[in-house]
Specification:
Layout (H helix, E strand, L loop, with lengths): L7 H39 L7 H4 L5 H33 L1 H9 L4 H37 L2 H4 L1 H19 L5 H25 L4 H30 L1 H13 L2 H52 L1
Helix pairs in contact: 1-3, 1-5, 3-5, 3-8, 4-11, 8-9, 8-11
């Protein structure tokens, strides 16, 4: 059997090996996430139930709904950040010297080794979000058993907020259709996985820190660039400001927001979707090429020794 061609059986064996070697660690992490989210939701809704300022922005939201939304914020943010660290850790572990030597001894191609890790990362991220939703569901069940009203609303709020976001983004004109919105979501998810994989392959130590600093810098550059480009455009076209003012007076609030979003913000979002797609492809390709080169370099060092 040739070992220089991609083989599904070897790929599957590598994937099973990754999960078999880390099953205890993964189970411990998922258990801690589940217990931590449940404990936080119970603590927040029972001990420090605060509605915050959400009701000022959304008057139709009840106090219990506001408490439930505030309770969900912290675990959602922490889990989201944790799913960015997972790919960094997995691929930085490969980039270590011991990881390279160990991978060199495995009877598989570089493509099989790299792709098995990518699939492993994707499955781990999915498992983390499944665990988060199971913890929310379990907390909601506790709320129904012990009659804790904010906890009762957790699962319904997840469903309602999802529908609310979909309806409002279409209504505002940010996306022209459901298909375009889901496509942008998919692009964003791929980017959030490809980016830490790339930085994890490059940096051996604390890749998540370098990733955070670089991405924050890129984010601020894009936002500042967009703001200055819009300011320059309006400064050179003062008639546009006058026409916008007239439209704001003639149109209602919702109609004007739809017009402004569809005309000025929606094109920027589409361009960002294209940019994120290109960056995702480049990051994954560079990660694979760097991984292959390190495998070759490690092989040469081993032969010299």
């Amino acid at each position: 059997m040739k070992t220089n061609q991609f083989n599904i059986k070897r790929f599957w064996q590598l994937l099973c090996l990754h999960f078999d070697e880390t099953k205890k660690t993964n189970l411990l992490i998922l258990s801690l996430i589940f217990l931590g989210v449940v404990a936080w939701l119970l603590f927040y809704t029972s001990v420090i139930p605060t509605a915050g300022d959400i009701q000022k922005t959304f008057p139709n939201i009840t106090q219990n709904e506001a408490i439930a939304i505030n309770a969900l914020r912290l675990p959602t943010i922490i889990v989201g950040l944790f799913t960015l660290i997972i790919p960094c850790y997995v691929f930085s572990n490969i980039s270590s010297q011991s990881g390279e030597i160990r991978y060199l001894t495995l009877p598989a191609t570089s493509a099989e080794k790299w792709l098995s890790r990518v699939v492993y990362v994707v499955v781990c991220v999915v498992l983390v979000y499944i665990t988060l939703n199971l913890a929310i569901l379990f907390s909601s069940a506790i709320g129904w058993i012990f009659d804790i009203k904010p906890l009762k609303l957790l699962t319904q709020l997840n469903y309602d907020s999802e529908n609310y976001v979909v309806i409002e983004t279409i209504k505002m004109g940010l996306f022209s259709s459901m298909t375009e919105m889901h496509l942008m979501r998919f692009i964003t998810i791929v980017f959030t996985i490809a980016t830490p994989i790339f930085f994890g392959t490059i940096f051996r130590r604390t890749p998540w820190l370098y990733m955070a600093l670089i991405l924050l810098g890129i984010y601020f550059i894009l936002i500042i660039g967009f703001a200055f480009s819009m300011m320059g455009y309006f400064k050179s076209h003062p008639e546009v400001i006058e026409s916008i003012g007239k439209l704001k007076e003639s149109l209602g609030k919702e109609e004007f927001i739809h017009f402004a979003t569809e005309t000025y913000i929606s094109p920027f979002v589409r361009v960002m979707g294209i940019v994120l797609s290109i960056l995702s492809i480049v990051f994954l390709w560079l990660s694979y090429r760097l991984f292959c080169r390190r495998q070759i370099a490690c092989k040469k060092i081993k032969l010299i020794r």
